[in-house]
Amino acid sequence: MKKVMKILGLTFVIAMAALLVSTAAFAAADPTGASYAASSGSETIADVAAAANKAQFSANFVWVMITGFMVFFFQCGFAMVETGFCRGKNAAHTMTMNFMVFLVGAVGYFLTGFAFQFGGSGGAAGLGTGGAALNGLLSIPGLGGILGYKGFFLQSGNTYDAGIYALFFFQMVFMDTTVTIPTGAMAERVKYSAVVISSFFVSMIYYPLFGNWMWGGGWMAALGKNFGLGHGAVDFAGSAVVHSMGGMMALAGAIVIGPRIGKFKKDGTARAFPGHHIPMAIVGTIILFFCWFSFNAGSTLNAGDFRLAVVATNTMIAGAVGGLVAMFYMWMKYGKPDPSMTCNGALAGLVAITAPCAFVNGIIAFLIGAVAGILVCVAVPFVENKLKIDDPVGAISVHCVNGVWGVISLGLFADGTYGDGINGVAGGVKGLFYGDAGQFAAQMITVAVLIVWGFGLSFVWFHFLNKVWGLRVKPDVEIEGLDMEEMGAVGYPDFVIQQSELDNVSPDPVIIRKYVKM
């Protein structure tokens, strides 16, 4: 014990000596941080202005990149929601699809998607002057732009620029949300290879062209300047561009691929296929909810735009109300609060507020979310029981139906307090109830284009792909589960008895027969 005390005492003396030395060594440190900014005392007004300008751009870059990082985490949320709502025999297949679409989407968007969408947009003002290189927009006289042509491989047209790269990163993770949505509606019977091919189609052509028309300076955005329809088509963070486009594709894909085996009885009524892991789906929903703050508020693309606080708060309100309304709706109608519909209600509210989040106040956000919560509860049984469409996760009801509701709600409730200069039109964005019927008309044109382009093109695409490649796995594979046949691995091997464990090829069939009834 004495020896231990001596060692501890010596250690204490050495530590105190080290503390005194370090204090002396860093006596010149600046705990206030006042000296961190290099200054000579002879700076000019121009020097100060340049430093302030750089600080503003630095804040914008950090804001855009960090929110982009968080939007990428959407992939985790979608993977968990979809996998949790599906059966365990397809867990590895569903989870891997949601990861793979990011890999394919990133490559496809890098090759052509970004150029088609933003090649003529002029970039983002808050991310520097390099965006001026994005000046290639193919247009139809009298109508407006239809696609960009600068920025292929992030190289063509002198687009090797930090600001353009930041814009690419942020917009790429948005696009990938659209790629992910159809996987849920086609889960448990779609070929993995077909999803790979479709993901290239979405990231290179389907999404970028519509995105150009709305966000890339295209003809829908120009409806205000060219035809006097408000500010033209407006979608702050993607109810139309991201969610409705993904939802329309989910609808088309579910129709073409058909329902899962056994989903509908001979009398036409639907059979319930419960999800295998509701806790996983709930965690996925929480992840999506958290990332949605960046999804919407990050769309300011400007850390100095204080409206981002309104955007984030409106997002929270609509998502929370959507989930709560859906929960009470199911509770009153069926006697139980239904965890899966509570999740879908929250997601529906988030989808709906994504377009108008910057243009409405908290009360309207509450209303939009409440309507979304009811809509999703009505749409899910309607899609399944009336349309006879099998959507394992409710992607059509969440993203297609409520994406459209979000587009329309902007045209109704935008209050004119924000949006001066958007799409080259002076003044704030106002909806029908605030005196601008033109804005409502522009939003309804957006809905029409979503149906014609979003649903129409994807319906044709899936028919084509089904004919030349095939969309659906073989019936025996679907019944057994897609994991082993499609992926070569099962999601839960500890809960699956393989045939090789039961036959006489086993090293010790006697032991197996002892514990397994043959």
Report helical residue fraction: 55-70%
| Span of the ends, CA to CA | 67 Å
Q: pLDDT under 50 segments (min length 5)?
A: 21-28, 497-518
Query: Per the principal axes of the C-alpha atoms, what is the gross shape?
Result: globular
For the sheet with most strands, the description reads: 2 strands, antiparallel
| Topology, number of strands | 2
Q: What percent of residues are in strands?
A: under 5%
Could you characterize what this model shows?
With 518 residues, the chain is mostly helical. It is built from 17 helices and two strands. The chain has a two-stranded antiparallel ribbon with strand order 1-2. The longest helix has 32 residues, at 437-468. It is globular, with a radius of gyration of 27 Å. Residues 21-28 and 497-518 have low confidence and may be disordered.
SSE topology:
Layout: H1 2-25, H2 45-72, H3 74-85, H4 91-118, E1 137-140, E2 144-148, H5 162-185, H6 192-215, H7 223-227, H8 239-257, H9 278-297, H10 307-334, H11 339-353, H12 362-386, H13 395-413, H14 437-468, H15 475-480, H16 482-487, H17 509-515
Antiparallel strand pairs: 1-2
Helix pairs in contact: 2-5, 2-9, 3-4, 3-5, 3-9, 4-5, 4-6, 5-6, 5-8, 6-14, 8-13, 8-14, 9-10, 9-11, 10-11, 10-12, 11-12, 11-13, 12-13, 13-14
Feature tags:
Ammonium transporter, 518 residues, Ammonium_transpt_CS, ammonia transport, transmembrane helix, 2 strands, mainly alpha, transport, 62% helix
How would you summarize what this structure contains?
Keywords: Ammonia transport, Membrane, Signal, Transmembrane, Transmembrane helix, Transport. The protein is mainly alpha-helical and 518 residues long.
